[in-house]
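It is worth pausing here to work through a concrete case rather than discussing structure prediction in the abstract. The textbook approach is simple: state the sequence, then state the predicted structure, then interpret. We follow exactly that order.
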Amino acid sequence: MRRQDPPPSVLTPELAQEIACDIGRITGFNVLITDRSAVVIGCGDRERLGTVHEASYDVLRTRKAATHTARQAREFTGVRPGMSLPIIVGAQAVGTVCLTGEPDEVRRFGLVVRRQTEILLTEAQLLRSRMLHERAVDDHLRDIALYDPEAVDADTVEGRARELGLDPSVPRTAVLLDVPLGSGDAVTVSRMSLLRTVREVFPGGQDVAGELTAGRYLVLRAADGRRAPLAARCEALVDLVGERHGLAARVALAEPGSGVAGMHASYQDAAATLRIGPVLDPGSRVFAAHDLRVPHLVASAVRHDRTRYADALLGELRSRPDWPDLRATLVAWPECGFHLVRTADRLQIHRNTLVHRLARLTELSGQDIRHPKTAMALYLACLADLLTPGGVPGVR
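Step two, the predicted structure:
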């Protein structure tokens, strides 16, 4: 059988030096820490770093503490009077902690110092384990976001999901949180602090949340078939991010997807929605992909084709000083079902003002704006006009 190398020890030289100096300051004793090979990796006396502490060999072998008088210490290399104790993490002796001084004096502190050292190492080990888990979660989410069936086998991605305790057969909805970072207090907000807030809103055992890039977080929400509660959760998430972290966040949610390919498609829709939604409705904070299917389709066209289409239908309308109002009318008219009262309410204008504006549009464009086919053509042209100047790339 091939011999396996032991796992790397959590007792690193950096951590050992920090522990040795901290405990030394508290106790007043010179504290020395060795690794599992009895090499000094932490000590208040830096000249001893890298030397061998011979007395630690037996301590590591027997896993029992030992004291050394001045006479006994002279029989070893690199040993001073004091006490040496094994550091046990789990079932393994990972090193020793040694206190320099008269054996009778240091014996009173030895067990306490060893226990404190073991507690610090256990906490460091748990932190390292959590960090590795978080990295695995982030990697899995990136696998979904960047999935390419020509380059990666879906079974491989599903296998990694199972390692994280996730059932890959459960349909999941992509929820994408965008938090602007890099100015003011935003740069001081930690990744884990934001993730705790995200996971508080999405606490399901089959929900998975992590960081894709700085300031962008992805949640794959285990689908329950109810769209409205999910939108409400997204609103709650934006509120919490604002209250706790002082950041103005935006969220996009898509439709559920099954399997790796389905969840990848859900993520793509959420990403496209997060690009398109704020352009069309800057005042909103939560955007749903199912509400933006038509703009998504327009945005997916090549930029040059979008520009030509808008130019052909809108002509000189875009050069008019009242073009923003005219464009808002052309967008609201079909979206409100060609209903005068609903359209006027959305635009916050009087019904008679809307009637006058529709007549004006018919006159300026040379097309009957009240005809649904004409209105829809102009509506798509307005969407192309809105999406192109902002540099929203086509979604492919």
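Step three, interpretation. Residues 13-130 form a domain with the Beta-Lactamase fold (CATH 3.30.450.40). The chain has 14 helices and ten strands.
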